[in-house]
Amino acid sequence: MKTREQEYREIFMAEALEYYDSMGRHISELEKNPADERALNELFRLMHNLKANARAMGYADIGEVAHGMETIFGLIRSKEREFAGSIVPVLFAGVDALGDMIRAVDENNPTPNVEALQANLDRLVRGEEPDIEDVDNSDENANRKLELSDLVYIQIKKLDHLMNLVGELIIDRDRILTLSQEIGSPALQTAATHLFRIADELQYSVMDARLVNVGSLFNKFPRVVRDVATAENKEIELVLNGQDIQIDRNILQIITDALLHLVRNAIGHGIETPAERQKAGKPARGKLTINAQTERDDVLIHVSDDGRGINIESVRRKAVERGLTTAEAAAGLDDNAVRAFLFEPGFSMAKEVTEISGRGVGLDVVKLAIDSLGGQLRVDSVLGQGTTFTLVLPTSIAVKGALLFELEERSYAIPLMHTDSVVSLWPDQLHVVGGLLLAEVMGENVPVVDLRRLLHNSDGPLPLATREELRGRQEIIIVNYNNRKLGLIVDRFLRQQNIVIKPMSKPLDTIDLFGGVTVLGSGQVCLVLDVPALTRLFLAKRP
Hints:
Layout: H1 4-32, H2 37-57, H3 60-77, H4 87-106, H5 115-126, H6 156-183, H7 186-209, E1 211-213, H8 215-218, H9 221-231, E2 236-241, E3 246-248, H10 249-270, H11 274-279, E4 286-295, E5 298-305, H12 312-321, H13 327-331, H14 335-339, H15 363-372, E6 376-382, E7 386-394, E8 399-407, E9 410-415, E10 419-425, E11 430-433, E12 436-441, E13 444-450, H16 451-456, E14 474-481, E15 484-490, E16 492-500, E17 514-519, E18 525-529, H17 531-541
Parallel strand pairs: 2-4, 9-18, 13-15
Antiparallel strand pairs: 1-3, 4-5, 5-7, 6-7, 8-9, 8-16, 10-14, 11-12, 12-13, 14-15, 17-18
Helix pairs in contact: 1-2, 1-4, 2-3, 3-4, 3-5, 4-5, 6-7, 9-10, 10-15
């Protein structure tokens, strides 16, 4: 497995060699037309970016040469110098030297000696004439070989298309494997097994090509935090951890705005002003931590602050004021259920509207983004000590783990992301409270509903639950969404497997209880349940 340093070096090399190729092209254009401002501006930009990247990676020599070149191109842009005479061969020599230095990094060779070049660059910056004898390296240069980088850039849409094709292949692979087992031909089974292995390797190779470090997003936040903290008149220390954790690039793109909302929310709502913190016995500077880690097949991103925490009673009162629940019902809700109101559209605890907070948007946007990925959003908070939001994300959105089950002789799937556990209980292990069927699972009372009723009952609320209608052992899937657990009674469990989810075609795409379809190895079309939609439906129909 590549180390973090190796991956960063590869990224640097890919960009640096691309910069080098562009430099050669633009400086040739500038030589033909010294008034070409576009070429001049591009050369200045390339030198500036190469300087910054090289210094960040610790390649000081490359950074120094790029800095000298950048300074001279800046002088030419400001009309203090002209791209003519002895300045031209020095700058061409500088581009050549940068190419040699970049290739030396890739080949782990010693950095070429550039003392003479650096001396000439310094002379030009001071307005002096360069030493032309030190510039003449024509013999070394028509013997230079042309080289191509072994790194290429691939557009995401091309990888998306490739992943879709792999998804189709996986579906057909499973069907062929099932057919080979039914037919019983040893030769066909051998070929099907080989296809299974090749398709697996292809799938994971494509998925691996789409992975990026979360650091590519995390590293953009220091400036964001600084700007938001300045606007809020707060002092914030940002801590980043787990930047080398890898995730599908499309997932990272989808959660970008969600993560931005959480960071702005932590600074605007969570962390107190310096005066408030000192009064509470805290350091004046608040601490905001963004941390990534892996947990089984998931990536967890935590956004934690050491601020004031969430006042459960304030949220409870606000929910009643907003008409989201009654005062009687709110009084009986546990802390997790109360915190779930924070994700309702337009819900805000801000006392005043600012550029950062109080506009009634934010956490609901975060929830929608996570739901679209089949992920989860958790919130933990201690009043006076701080709050942590946890984004539970799949590593890839193309292939998902799922639990298959049967209901009325049809197969269905539930993403493992939302599956908490599975239990088998006898009717006398269930009890009825207020017309609601409850099961005690790991010391917690979980509402239980017959999935058949939930799917087919379209008119009015669900009928009051009774134990008498239950016959024999009940197979129950415990799902978890938005800190709420719900037990779904099904006919029987089938198995756990990876599935490729395809969107529903019209007009079925308007049924929001299903998140898509997949095709099983038998060729049977299997509906994939949308757990967030099911949970919302149950809450709307509960007695």
